[in-house]
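Exercise 7. Given the encoded structure of a 248-residue chain, write a plausible sequence.
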């Protein structure tokens, strides 16, 4: 039989180092798992500690959604009224920076649809109009009268906006054709809801003064639309300046 190999301190040290690396990896994995569990428990406790919103809190949030929708719609209308410089002409962008402004306008459209759907298209949503309006029959009848629509026509309109949101904004499904929704009826709907809440649902003092009068909402809308119109009308000049300075 051959003589057994001599014991080497270097071999022992190498094995010990590898064992320590394995132990450290295991400890790190255990700590990471414990941290994830702790974060999940903290998040769960945080959700559980939030009491349901009161009616007053819900009313205030619905009004805020109305205002957010109208603000985004005002900016979008201002963009549409000043298309020079950011919309394509003969398949070409007018100025080098036009893609930025196109993205801005598209995002405004998407935000309008998202906010509107919270109020009118999500029947199970937290801020759906039926969960906050008391006289629902009268509210809806007056809304249809303002729009000049039948109940079925309005249902079809809601479905179109819901489809745009679900298939092209929240997700990107396999539909080949996207139909850009028209927001005229949405704007009338949100104005009607805001006016109704202020007149019939919100107790005195619940809302900030700038949120509590329909005429102020319309005045703010026109003001924001004018701001957006001026900004988008500058796009051509901005683009020209960018090309002259080499985009710096």
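Solution.
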């Amino acid at each position: 039989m051959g003589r057994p190999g001599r014991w080497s301190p270097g071999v022992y040290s190498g094995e010990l180092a590898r064992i320590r690396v394995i132990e450290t990896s295991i400890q790190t994995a255990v700590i990471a798992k414990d941290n994830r569990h702790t974060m999940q428990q903290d998040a769960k406790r945080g959700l559980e500690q939030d009491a349901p919103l009161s009616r007053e809190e819900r009313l205030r949030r619905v009004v805020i959604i109305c205002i957010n929708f109208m603000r985004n719609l005002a900016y979008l209308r201002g963009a549409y009224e000043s298309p020079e410089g950011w919309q394509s002409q003969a398949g070409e962008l007018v100025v080098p920076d036009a893609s930025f402004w196109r993205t801005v306008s598209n995002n405004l459209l998407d935000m309008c649809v998202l906010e509107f759907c919270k109020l009118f298209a999500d029947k199970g949503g937290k801020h759906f109009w039926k969960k906050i309006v008391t006289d629902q029959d009268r509210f809806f009848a007056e809304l249809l009268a303002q729009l000049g629509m039948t109940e079925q026509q309005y249902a079809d309109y809601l479905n179109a906006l819901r489809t745009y949101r679900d298939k092209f904004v929240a997700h990107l499904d396999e539909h080949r054709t996207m139909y850009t929704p028209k927001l005229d009826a949405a704007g009338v709907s949100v104005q009607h809801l805001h006016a109704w809440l202020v007149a019939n649902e919100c107790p005195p003092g619940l809302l900030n003064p700038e949120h509590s009068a329909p005429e102020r909402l319309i005045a703010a809308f026109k003001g924001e639309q004018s701001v957006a119109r001026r900004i988008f009308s500058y796009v051509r000049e901005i683009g020209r300046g960018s090309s002259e300075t080499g985009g710096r």
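Remark. The CA atoms of residues 198 and 204 lie 9 Å apart. Students should compare their own answers with the one above.
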